[in-house]
Amino acid sequence: MLFGTYPFGEIWRPSIAAVVLLGAFFIPLARPRLLILASSWTVALVIATGLFDGRPFGLQYVEPHEWGGLPLTLLLSEAAILLAFPLGLALALARCSGTVILRSLALVLVESIRGVPLVSLLFFATLVLPLFLSGLSGLDKLYGAAAAIILFNAAYISEVFRGGLTTVPIGQLDAAKSLGFRWTSMQRFIVLPQAFRACAPSLVNQAVGIVKDTSLLAVLGLFDFMNSAKLALVDARWRGNFVEVYVVVGLAYFLMCFAVSVLGQRLSSSLERPSKGDEAVTRAPLPSIVVAESQS
């Protein structure tokens, strides 16, 4: 139930991976900053993936279709959140850009992904797409399912970000351009901080949804935490305890979603308080800002 079909003699590896992935949640709680969260989650994902696979650490190789259980759910949840959010932000900026081609491509990509259910996208990425692309025929369906979850949630996150970008008054953008701000500086100091504050609650809700979306991997035959629980009930010794099994599964998903919600609330609260760098910029006299932007 906890480790799925992972080889029994190697279950110490997903156990350590689960501890590493859970530990990545507590580091940003101590200091809620986006950079700290991205760094800790990236390091945790690299270590956990290496332990699951085995080859980066010189261990026995375990194929992806044998990964499973609660560590796999944690791995997919953190990977999807970490990759879907920057991809969604990039799509939102492309939708709001002045380049017609870039805006049209982002529009087609977002609307085509949002117009289909996630289940059909999972089947398409793991079963249909490898039939047309020979290079993907040997790709394990776990990677295809992870890519589908990331793209699907990135499309929805892009619309959340786009809603936040539209809340920034156009007068501030015109004022920044008149002062000589470059596009990157304007987005960093003016647009994105206000957009993040406006759409932070919706982004937290989307992150919680990503954790719950990982349970749909059961339809593909992948033994995530939900499907591993069903596999445990196949054993005759467990058939009379199906209520207890699903109570444990529901409690585990509740704790994961609650942890993501608390982390998101801490991050959104930190966005309400200006950092030392922002205070330095706001307290600096206007001529120095203009001179710094012109020199850069």
What does this structure look like?
This protein is mainly alpha-helical and 296 residues long. The protein has a single domain (70-295), classed as MetI-like (MetI-like fold), CATH 1.10.3720. Helix content is 74%, strand content 0%. It is globular. The N and C termini lie far apart (56 Å).
Write the layout of secondary structure elements.
Blueprint: H1 12-30, H2 34-53, H3 69-95, H4 100-114, H5 118-132, H6 141-165, H7 170-178, H8 183-213, H9 225-234, H10 242-272, H11 276-283, H12 286-295
Helix pairs in contact: 1-2, 1-3, 2-3, 3-4, 3-6, 3-8, 3-9, 4-6, 5-6, 6-8, 7-8, 8-10, 9-10
Top keywords for this entry?
disordered C terminus, MetI-like fold, globular, 12 helices
Q: Tell me the span between the first and last alpha carbons.
A: 56 Å
Classify the secondary structure makeup into a structural class.
mainly alpha
The parts where pLDDT drops under 50 for at least 5 residues are 277-294
- What is the mean pLDDT? 85
Q: From N to C, what is the helix and strand string? A: HHHHHHHHHHHH
Helix content: over 70%
Stated plainly, the CATH topology is called MetI-like fold
Shape: globular
Return the CATH architecture.
Answer: Orthogonal Bundle
- Major β-sheet profile: none
Give the count of helical stretches.
12
Number of discrete domains: 1
- At the first level of CATH, the class is Mainly Alpha
Instruction: Provide the gyration radius in Å.
Output: 22 Å
CATH homologous superfamily grouping: MetI-like
Number of strands: 0
